[in-house]
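call fold(seq) -> tokens
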Amino acid sequence: MQRTTRAIVSCLCALGSATLALAPLSARAGEDVQIVALDQGALRLADGRRLAPDGAVFPTRLDPSPLREAAAREAAQGLFQTAIVLPASPRRDRHGRLTGPARRVPIDGVQKADGEDDLAVALVRAGAAYADPAARIEAADALLAAEDAARRARSGIWALPDTLADSAQGGQGRVGLFTVAQGRVFSARTAGSTLYINFSGPKTVALAASTGAKSRHGLVPATLAGTVLRVRGVVQGTERTRIALGARAAEMIAGPAKEMEQ
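ret:
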């Protein structure tokens, strides 16, 4: 009898542990939510909540091109119709939106051919959002690969020629907005623990970037001049615009001897 009781208790404990492990998949226990629309930088859910999944940044009406928000909305529409979502956290940002990772679950229960159940990665791959690897460093490789696939296929927002901004043109019109820019580095220097990257000479106006020691990801100041970098983040400043780079926010695209690639 004691053995039987112990076995039952062990099973219940194991079941309880599994339940606790699965619980974070939904902001409300056991709840799957249908996405209604992509609206103003977030996904509007059928129950009225708004979700901004970490790792994906959507264009908004503040974007200098009104076509970009529309392209993102259209690219995401297919995901709305074929899947429900499981928000992984009840955490909300200052705008009241749910944040954190979220799972994409096919409505018919059959995993789609792309095999992608990470909602942020699926949205980026569809061309509905920019990748923000600094927001989910554990998924950085998947997010960047998804964005690269969308850009090469010219899907969604990447069908517009200026979605990949030219760093030589500066960040005017993009201040306060998440931006992906690419260009040839004019110079790079360090001051204390900060690395400063300039995409133009002292008499011209172009985008600049800076990063702390923990976010450099292999960038060596002495070897950066003449290389082509792709950087991402929120544009700051007024006359002299710059991006403060987070982890994995700078990618080496070409060395000094190669032409720019997009």
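The two ends are 71 Å apart (CA to CA).
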